[in-house]
Amino acid sequence: MTKRPLPLRTGSLTSKQALLTLLLAVLISVIAGCLELFNHAASMREDVAQRVEQQLAIVNGAAAEAAFQLNPDLANQIAYGLFSDDEIAQVTIRDDFGAALAEFVPDSATETSWLSQRLFGDMLRYREPLNYFVAADLPEAEVGEVELRLDEHSLTQQFLARSVSVVGSSVVEAFILSLLIIAFFHYFITRPLLKVHDAIVHTDPERPGQWAKPQLHGHRQDELGHLVDSLDHLLQAFQKGLDQRDQLHHLSHNDGLTGVANRRHFDLFYKQQWQRTQHHAQPLSVIFIDIDNFKEFNDHYGHAMGDDTLRAVAQVLNQCIDPDQELLARYGGEEFVCILPGKDEAAALDVAQCLRRAVLSLAIPHAYSSTHTHLTASMGVASTSRHTALSATALLALADQHLYHAKQRGRNRIEARPSTV
Ligand SMILES: Nc1nc2c(ncn2[C@@H]2O[C@H](COP(=O)(O)OP(=O)(O)OP(=O)(O)O)[C@@H](O)[C@H]2O)c(=O)[nH]1
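Above are the sequence and the guanosine-5'-triphosphate SMILES. Below is the predicted complex in structure-token form.
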């Protein structure tokens, strides 16, 4: 049977594994990046609130002084100091009547967005009372307040700038990690699997036991090693089954003594070739071969010698035919038959001459033969090229009849028609 390679499939294991790993890496890095951003937003809110409170604590004394003295210059200086911070959008210092001593507001309205509202919307405004010790023996008195509004646009920009670097580094880390994972899996799993796949694909289905069992270094004790061993056991078992099948086929198709085709094989082959040659209007010839005076041979040289002789005869007869197209079978006892599909009577007579001479060439002495000093054989030939109207059975009967004539006419001869050849 010719080896048929399996069709190549697109999408290698390595590329699938690489794609899956990269997708997973991107997904994990996005999730990790989001978590990190969530933490970052919380810590940024904490930092901003702490900074603002520190700034308010620093300016509280001076602002209280300005409010107590109703000093707009001092109030303006303090408010400007606060306003110059990029994160602060608006500063107002008021006296205890609520009148503004100093106020800095942005030139244009600050940009607001959904993100800035979500992140910082609840912490934009700060109001700090200004307490002042009027006299050492009197309690603190509230003399005004400082009000701040943070610049949500500036805060959001800071957050986004940081986010890009956080997500970017998270993606790069994930990418590098996924490359390492891809290389690792390719080297330790995909490559050995591909070796096994390659060995299986290149195994001849008629000889599975002869597969090139892959040597997977470093995998002898793991699942891959076990997989190769299991495959090997399986293929050896298949091979055993195929060997038994071939053996049974041989036994059922071949003669146990001579090794040539048996009667059963002959019947099948003859039927098959008869139909084929009839269908293609080709000739088919049959030669019956019978060893002469074999009873005497057996009686005098013994049955064992008779068996050896039958084997030797079968072997030489086989050399006269084309084993790919024609068949030599043991028809029974000391009788053989040849089927010659595609050969007409003239060609069949040539083969018969070859067969007759082949038996003579063995030069097996037969001192008890009534006709010759050595072993000979007689043959009867019949061909559809001459007898076109005959049936398959009738053609065999005719060849047998010609063989009978050959015996009658002195043996060691070939008969193809009532007259002698
Ligand atoms: N050794 C051996 N002898 C066999 C075997 N099969 C058949 N024979 C013998 O072949 C002989 C055939 O004898 P006959 O049919 O009388 O034919 P013959 O003696 O060859 O005479 P003709 O065919 O007329 O030349 C018999 O003695 C069988 O026992 C076999 O397998 N082994």
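The chain has a mean pLDDT of 90.
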